[in-house]
Amino acid sequence: MEIGLGVFSGEALPDTGLDQSEELELSLREMEHAERVGLDAVWITEHHFLESGYVGSVLPYAAALAARTTRIGVGISVALAPLYEPIRLAEDAAFVDQLSNGRLRLGLALGYRDVEYEGFGVRRPTRVRRTEELCEILRQAWSPGPVDFEGRHFTRRGVEVFPKPVHGSIPLLMGGHAPAAIDRVARLADAFIMDGGTDSDVFAERGHNRGILERVETGHRLYCEALERHGRGDEPVQFYLTLGGFLHEDGADAAWEAVRDGYMYTRRVYGDWYGLRPEEYEGWYPDRMSPDEHARRRGEMSLGTPDDVADLLGRLRDIVGDGLHVMFRSKYPGVDHDATMRSVSLLGEVRDRLA
Q: Does the CA dihedral 266-198-4-329 come out positive or negative?
């Protein structure tokens, strides 16, 4: 299995005292550290129009990562596919792939925030078809010869994209939780991304996640069934999993203490994005939460020492097999840089134990 470090959003929260440039520099140092301790990839994520400075320009961010490292995978989880012009994305992704000597992995998603579609002049009902057409154009653009494509939203003919990716193509990863989304991944992508951080099937109703082992077992089974339906059952299954967590040499209590404010910030943000009423998430601050709520939130994460975390990841590998890549989130907005660096170091120990 592989273990990557995620997800870098570039957010600079006011109470940290850091401006955007300072936050991005610290994030790049954390990415460099991930390479030093032997992790397999670093993952960058995309959203738009947020005061926190959430990164919208993921490919320039990925280029900065490529320039500061030499070995580690350069991952985007995920780019919001309906917002992109396909030839521009094909060129930019191929250039970053060349810059990184073939290390780019490109995750794509439909998105779900209306303000993002409106800001880019995209109608939400078109997002599925736009994404499917974009995937087809990317494949053509990275292959020898000119693009020749006519679709409902894009028609592109007679241009050939240069440079080509180092290895002839760039791995396309796609996510989703609905049956139609998983089927789309099996048709169009090279790997499935399961969101272990936010349980989309129930979060909008409960504001909490279900147990990760049950969810992974179900997601992996549904993806394998979809591959079979599309005649790809004999291919190696590549299964990517986002997983929230934090490591501390003193155990789970110390890990939760270090990360809880940053984690609960993300829960409030997602509460808003998933359409919960403000009164449902306005109390999601650690100093306002009951002991039971603390325990429940801790249970959504993988916290503790390398021994603790390695045990869970080993159980996940038993379910998925060798094609598992865990995007382990040890980067949260507002969490102290030194604490993040220590967590990354300990995650490197987990990687060594499971290698």
A: positive
Residues 236-246 have pLDDT tens digits of 999 999 999 99
Q: How far apart are CA 341 and CA 42, in angstroms?
A: 14
Taking residues 251-261, what's their average pLDDT? 98
Does residue 259 register a pLDDT over 80?
A: yes
Token pair in block for residue 10:
């570039």
**3-class secondary structure per residue, the chain:** CEEEEEEECCCCCHHHCCCHHHHHHHHHHHHHHHHHCCCCEEEECCCCCCCCCCCCCHHHHHHHHHHHCCCCEEEEEEEEHHHCCHHHHHHHHHHHHHHCCCCEEEEEECCCCHHHHHHCCCCHHHHHHHHHHHHHHHHHHCCCCCCEEECCCCEEECCCCCCCCCCCCCCEEEECCCHHHHHHHHHHCCEEEEECCCCCCCHHHHCCCCCHHHHHHHHHHHHHHHHHHCCCCCCCCCEEEEEEEEECCCCHHHHHHHHHHHHHHHHHHHHHHCCCCHHHHCCCCHHHCCHHHHHHHHCCCEEECHHHHHHHHHHHHHHHCCCEEEEEECCCCCCCHHHHHHHHHHHHHHHHHHC
Distance CA 31, CA 129 (A): 34
What pLDDT score was predicted for residue 173? 98
* 276: its two tokens: 């919960």
The pLDDT tens digits of the residues spanning 193-215 come to 999 866 666 655 666 667 899 89
Separation CA 20–CA 18 (nearest Å): 7
Residue 13 sits at the vertex; the CA angle it makes with 7 and 18, to the nearest 5 degrees, is 100
Q: What is the pTM of this model?
A: 0.95
- In one-letter notation, the amino acid at residue 282 is E
Mean pLDDT of 310-339: 97
Which of 166, 183, 89 has its CA nearest to residue 128?
A: 183
CA dihedral 231, 235, 237, 240 (to 10 degrees): -90
